[in-house]
């Protein structure tokens, strides 16, 4: 989800704006509904550092319009232990049915394709704990 927020006016204030937006969220304010007073932002941040206490940045409230502040919304399916979007070759674990990148499980695509029932590392441990070691019987 992308929201239209107050923009910096130069190439030097991206960090100050990021902190101001994060502060607005922490104080329960919607960053898309405020306009920060740019001439006061740096001095305010220095004051917060000096006082060791963060406070809401100087701002004015934007007038509400019927237009939604959300500019773009996209549903992304997350898989694997890396929590990244689905990309490249993946396999579905036979135990938990979650999709994984082989390399995130310490395996190769070739190993997965050769396996009749590929498991993730977590399910593989669970399955091997229930199989008796025949070498010691």
TrEMBL record:
Superkingdom: Eukaryota
Protein name: Chromatin remodeling protein SHL
SUPFAM superfamilies, alphabetized: Cysteine proteinases, FYVE/PHD zinc finger
InterPro entries to which the protein is assigned, alphabetical: Papain-like_cys_pep_sf, Znf_FYVE_PHD, Znf_RING/FYVE/PHD
The organism of origin for this protein: Holothuria leucospilota (Black long sea cucumber)
